[in-house]
Specification:
Elements lengths: L6 H8 L7 E8 L2 E12 L2 E4 L6 E2 L4 H14 L9 H5 L14 H5 L32 H12 L3 H13 L42 E2 L1 H12 L6 H7 L4 E4 L12 E7 L4 E3 L4 E8 L2 E8 L5 E6 L8 H8 L5 H5 L10
Antiparallel strand pairs: 1-2, 1-11, 2-3, 4-5, 6-7, 7-8, 8-9, 9-10, 10-11
Length: 341
């Protein structure tokens, strides 16, 4: 059973089947998980139905979970957020003196100066002084992961298992591929419907490797909204605006990017300060994911889609769940319609 206010959302999901093979979605009202729903198929090349236990690739929705663990280690005095990562676990960026100043706080606020994705055009180096400004930088999370594993003597997977998955009952979640996922996992597709080969990460990656369900991730969101898992001071720091985002998101090559309207970043979360909302998105070939929560009302939604069109669901579902303007949709340049391939 679903509460009456969920039915319009479920009808919307049923109506986008031509563009998005499968969706897994969870809704929270006043901090309680009221709706968990799955619709569609596991992929364009797998007609089996999606259910609430179907495992999706979460992509960058991994980062808020990793940020929680990092802040827990900081509270315990094991990870100094302001200490250079190089002093904790050795160098990561070769022949770049500026990189020696990068801290865990820089990584979590995306102010490290390192690129988002390392490519020929953007090799691994700093593109501005660490701390000078925002530029979304996934590559920096590998260094943070190395530091977290160094100071604890544990793998990131074990840290996540002990501190998050087991404690919250997230039985269908892991930062590395599990054989039990083979029986029920989603397969991604690109905009034109081309299937994407399944990724099965053999080791955890702090920036992208989470495999999970909407049901499991909603339990993590519930922890955030209940201010659990951290002391009150650290929880406040987690969700406090630390830096204004820039319009280009990952614009390390722009020497003077303009600030984004209405978007800030905390220690691991994107923020819409005017709406008192926190958010994050996941973007990896063939999959899209999104989570947004209102800290005041404690209403939230998280969804996973096995299609590159999956973020466009925000234009349909957010007006019903979290009404009002959402700068995150404009910042991410989310399309206004979900159309068939």
């Amino acid at each position: 059973m679903h509460p009456p206010d969920a039915q319009p959302i479920l009808d919307l999901l049923a109506g986008v089947r031509g563009a998005i093979p499968g969706v897994s979605l969870a809704i929270l009202r006043a901090g309680e998980i009221t709706t968990i729903h799955a619709v569609g198929s596991r992929g364009s090349d797998d007609a089996a139905p999606v259910d609430v236990s179907t495992v999706f690739e979460a992509a960058s929705l991994t980062k808020p979970l990793v940020s929680l663990i990092a802040l827990q280690l900081a509270e315990e005095g094991r990870l100094d957020l302001t200490a250079p990562l190089e002093s904790l676990c050795g160098p990561y960026v070769p022949d770049d003196p500026r990189a020696a100043a990068i801290t865990a706080a820089h990584v979590l606020t995306h102010t490290s100066g390192l690129p988002n994705i390392v490519t020929k055009e953007t090799p691994l180096r700093t593109y501005f002084v660490p701390g000078a400004r925002f530029s979304y930088g996934s590559s920096a999370f590998a260094w943070l992961q190395r530091a977290m594993e160094k100071v604890t003597g544990q793998s990131l997977e074990n840290l996540a298992r002990e501190r998050v998955f087991d404690r919250l009952g997230m039985a269908d979640s892991s930062l590395q591929w599990q054989e039990r996922f083979e029986a029920n996992h989603a397969r991604g597709q690109e905009m034109d419907g081309t299937p994407v080969p399944k990724r099965r990460p053999v080791a955890p990656s702090a920036s992208w490797s989470l495999h999970t369900t909407a049901r499991d991730y909603a339990r993590f969101v519930q922890l955030v909204l209940r201010a659990q898992g951290l002391g009150s001071d650290m929880h406040a720091r987690w969700l406090a605006p630390a830096v204004r985002a820039t319009r280009g998101i990952d614009d390390v090559l722009d020497p003077s990017p303009a600030e984004a309207d209405g978007i800030a970043w905390g220690l691991g979360w994107g923020l819409e300060p005017s709406q008192d909302c926190l958010f994050h998105w996941g973007h990896i070939p063939g999959f899209r994911a999104f989570v947004i929560a209102n800290r005041r009302t404690k209403d939230a939604v998280v969804w996973f889609a096995n299609s590159a069109r999956g973020l466009r669901l925000g234009r349909l579902v957010l007006p019903a769940i979290l009404p009002g303007p959402h700068a995150s949709m404009e910042w991410l340049q989310v399309g206004r319609t979900v159309q068939g391939p």
